[in-house]
């Protein structure tokens, strides 16, 4: 029998050598685990996610000839109830690796499942510039993000390598985003059981 738990796809957008992002993703895994969610973790570096030369939906309705990794990822996106994106700020936006991943899939795959943003930087603003840019992309992908974001300033100082908070403030700050995400994901999952998706993609589905 399929699990009744909400399923969340956790995507780590940073693939940089020496990245801080892995610590953040580990922290988020633990935070999500406190909510009794099933977590699927995509580390774009570990997955060796390719540079996408063609979005998966451009291969047509049967995805004929599409790289298997795109087909598999699309299936996962279709199956989860919510997305959490972990992003650093690069030049006031998100890393190319993360945009490359998101651009590979149609809005029909995301299907109005809610998203939550965790952003970080090594400075004061905690990557909020990236989060604002990411909201726009997630919005047009039919993956609207909840209003509360979780921002981590001075990321280099506040987490150990295993993703444990060195400052207890993080454990408090993450809660509003998770509260909203669980609420919205539960609502959308219930509604999807009784109503067809109204998605009509710009570029095919
Ligand atoms: C290409 C690049 C651009 C960056 N641009 C910004 C920026 O616009 N604002 C900011 O606060 N930090 C910026 N930073 C600093 C990053 O937020 C910080 O290095 C963070 O640790 C990057 O995440 P990562 O370690 O997972 O790659 C930038 C870093 C890189 C590598």
From TrEMBL:
Which Pfam family, giving just one, matches this sequence? FMN_red
Residue ranges constituting the NADPH-dependent FMN reductase-like domain according to the UniProt record:
7-154
Q: Which domain of life is it from?
A: Eukaryota
Which GO CC terms are listed, alphabetically?
cytosol
Q: Which GO terms describe its molecular function?
A: FMN binding; oxidoreductase activity
Protein name (database record) = NADPH-dependent FMN reductase-like domain-containing protein
């Amino acid at each position: 029998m399929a699990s009744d738990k909400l399923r969340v796809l956790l995507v780590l957008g940073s693939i940089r050598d020496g990245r801080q992002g892995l610590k953040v993703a580990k922290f988020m895994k633990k935070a999500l685990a406190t909510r009794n969610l099933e977590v699927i973790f995509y580390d774009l570096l570990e997955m060796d996610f390719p540079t996408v030369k063609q979005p998966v939906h451009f291969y047509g309705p049967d995805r004929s000839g599409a790289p298997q990794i795109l087909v598999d990822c699309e299936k996962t996106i279709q199956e989860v109830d919510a997305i959490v994106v972990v992003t650093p700020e690069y030049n006031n936006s998100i890393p190319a690796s993360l945009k490359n991943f998101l651009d590979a899939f149609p809005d029909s795959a995301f299907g109005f499942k809610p998203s939550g943003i965790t952003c970080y930087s090594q400075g004061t603003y905690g990557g909020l510039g990236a989060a604002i840019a990411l909201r726009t992309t997630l919005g047009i992908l039919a993956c609207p993000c909840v209003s509360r974001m979780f921002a981590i300033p001075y990321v280099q100082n506040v987490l150990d390598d295993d993703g444990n908070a060195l400052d207890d403030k993080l454990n408090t700050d993450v809660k509003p985003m998770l509260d909203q995400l669980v609420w919205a994901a539960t609502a959308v999952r219930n509604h999807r059981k009784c109503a067809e998706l109204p998605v009509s993609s710009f570029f095919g589905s």
